[in-house]
């Protein structure tokens, strides 16, 4: 333990000494922030009692959160992460933080600060139209004991002598920072290696980290924190088309020549004909994955391959071949024909939503197919696909998901069940071009 000896003298004679512990930055790490309903706090409040016609004091239960911080060594771009600084002797003191590039240049030059978003700047926004105006920062200031507030958190004592800074690991609150994603994807490890620099104006502070001033943490080989771009290859391809601002008005022939060209049978001649399905098939095929490769959104709800040139008109019933019929809207029996779905199995059905999954949706009664890429701040899933308001763009289709699918070759990762949050206000069954 680092201490300073302070010597006391009386009439020129030494009579004793005390040891004063220097303030310390002990450790820094990054964690997942998990919030659950905590134990309520009983407080006294003064309220006006109408019956008694006077103010009275009464006990009320105040809702609180219980926060868990799970230490991690890597996190996805566009996700929230909690940076935790463990200290000693620095209660209520302010610290300055920089997230810097380590190992090699990916997001910035080595030892240069990276700009991210302070999550607290998102929390204070009350008008959704203002999310796009949130600015990034290269340096952050945080106070020790900022979570040690018993009014807010039932386990506030767990955060004594800690400073916790919540960051959004991107540069746009409203969308994925695809420019950063491309830089990560171009790296040989497809990873941005970062470390944390902590400084304080307090005197005699002891830093227990590494580097020239011992104030670098998660620093050096096997210690860097890793930021990764988690989206699947077919989503990367979809985002490249999104960046091109592909739409029916300006790019009709491109849609026909590029997206529709993947279909085996009945290739559409019009750009407006089923191009949501052609877009999905093209993104999958271009990145080496299986797809239906036939026009028609509803086909993407079936894991068997669709053959449009094989039409089912009969079924076997009680040992006999009989015409295929169904009841129409008026309740009348009518003859029908249906496309045939046969081997090979091209996809795997999912029991829940996963990042990048192919979704057959049915908003307002029509079939559509798209990719799930995020949730908005209200908890609605956001989808990136073609023919969404006649463009490649983000859209919201609440309560209309019919099927969730991954291509058969894709192995599900542990990180696939978590979605990034985009702070956008998307109209129900509407589309948005994120800023």
Shape designation: globular
Which CATH top level class of the largest domain fits? Answer: Mainly Beta
Q: What is the rounded distance between the termini? A: 51 Å
The count of domains is 2
Judged by helices, strands and strand pairing, the structural class is mainly beta
Please tell me how large the radius of gyration is. 29 Å
Sheet with most strands: 8 strands, mixed
Question: Under CATH, the topology of the largest domain is which?
Answer: Immunoglobulin-like
User: In terms of per-residue confidence, which ranges show pLDDT below 50 for 5 or more consecutive residues?
Assistant: 5-12
Helix content: 10-25%
DSSP helix count? Answer: 5
**Count the strands?**
30
Mean pLDDT: 90
Percent range for β-strand residues: 35-45%
CATH architecture of the largest domain: Sandwich
What is shown here, in short?
The protein is mostly beta strands.
Give keywords.
435 residues, mainly beta, eight-stranded mixed beta sheet, Immunoglobulin-like, 2 domains, endopeptidase fold (from Nostoc punctiforme), six-stranded mixed beta sheet
């Amino acid at each position: 333990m680092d201490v300073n000896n302070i010597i006391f003298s009386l009439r020129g004679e030494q009579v004793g000494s005390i040891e004063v512990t220097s303030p310390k930055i002990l450790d820094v790490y990054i964690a997942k922030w998990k919030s659950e309903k905590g134990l309520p706090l009983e407080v006294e409040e003064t309220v006006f009692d109408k019956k008694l016609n006077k103010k009275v004091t009464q006990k009320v239960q105040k809702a609180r959160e219980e926060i868990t911080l799970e230490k991690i060594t890597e996190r996805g771009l566009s996700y929230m992460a909690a940076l935790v600084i463990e200290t000693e002797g620095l209660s209520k003191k302010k610290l300055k933080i920089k997230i810097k590039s380590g190992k090699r240049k990916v997001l910035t030059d080595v030892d240069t600060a990276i700009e991210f978003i302070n999550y607290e700047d998102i929390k204070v926004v009350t008008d959704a139209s203002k999310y796009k105006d949130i600015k990034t920062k290269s340096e952050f200031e945080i106070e020790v004991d900022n979570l040690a507030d018993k009014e807010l958190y039932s386990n506030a004592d767990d955060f004594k002598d800690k400073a916790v800074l919540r960051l959004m690991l991107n540069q746009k609150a409203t969308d994925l920072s695809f420019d950063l994603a491309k830089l990560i994807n171009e790296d040989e490890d497809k990873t941005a290696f970062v470390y944390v620099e902590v400084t304080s104006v307090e005197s005699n502070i002891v830093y227990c980290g590494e580097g020239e001033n011992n104030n670098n943490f998660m620093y050096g080989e096997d210690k860097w924190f890793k930021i990764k771009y988690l989206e699947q290859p077919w989503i990367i391809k979809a985002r490249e088309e999104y960046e091109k601002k592909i739409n029916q008005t300006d790019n009709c022939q491109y849609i026909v020549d590029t997206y529709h060209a993947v279909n085996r049978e009945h290739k559409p001649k019009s750009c407006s004909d089923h191009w949501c399905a052609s877009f999905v098939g093209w993104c999958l095929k271009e990145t080496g994955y299986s797809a239906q490769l036939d026009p028609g959104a509803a086909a993407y709800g079936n894991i068997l391959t669709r053959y449009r040139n094989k039409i089912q008109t009969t079924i076997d019933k009680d040992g006999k071949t009989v015409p295929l019929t169904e009841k129409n809207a008026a309740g009348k029996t009518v003859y029908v024909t249906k496309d045939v779905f046969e081997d090979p199995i091209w996809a795997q059905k999912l029991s829940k939503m996963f990042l990048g999954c192919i979704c057959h949706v049915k908003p307002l009664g029509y079939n559509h197919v798209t990719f799930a890429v995020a949730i908005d701040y209200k908890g609605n899933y956001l989808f990136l696909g073609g023919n969404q308001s006649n463009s490649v763009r983000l859209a919201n289709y609440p309560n209309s998901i019919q099927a969730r699918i991954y291509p058969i070759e894709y192995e599900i990762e542990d990180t696939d069940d978590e979605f990034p949050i985009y702070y956008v206000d998307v109209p129900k069954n509407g589309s948005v071009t994120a800023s």
